[in-house]
Amino acid sequence: MLVHDFKGIVPSDVEELQKMPGVGRKTANVIASVVYEKPALAVDTHVFRVAARLGLTTNAKTPLATEKQLMKYIPEEKVAIAHHWLILHGRYVCVARNPKCEICPLTQWCKYFEKMKKV
User: Fold this and answer.
1) Could you confirm whether 44 is annotated as catalytic?
2) Which of these is catalytic: 26, 115, 117, 118?
3) pLDDT of residue 93
4) Which of 44, 72, 78, 118 is catalytic?
5) Nearest of 71, 28, 23 to residue 47 by alpha carbon
6) Does residue 13 carry a catalytic annotation?
7) Which one, out of 20, 42, 72, 105, has a CA that is 20 to 30 A from the CA of 1?
């Protein structure tokens, strides 16, 4: 398909990328962001979890809903780096099973920490 439909050139458009077999929205956003330096936000499990815990998203049930909510508030020029900040924070501090709130510099703004503190 890449050769036949796109003449061997990886498209930069997220919608066009998703037409290729095996390319979902997350992969398309990664390609658009990393390869073409477009303001695209790939939502993986880390971004999804951290955004919800911090309260950056509200009732986002899907990665697409998370992406749309985050894109409303993250300045275009910060999208690519914000994506990496969220991933790294989720990978090393705000981990899935036992978040390391005791070392987290974001607890004063974190909805999850606020809720857990009251329990």
Assistant:
1) yes
2) 26
3) 98
4) 44
5) 71
6) no
7) 42
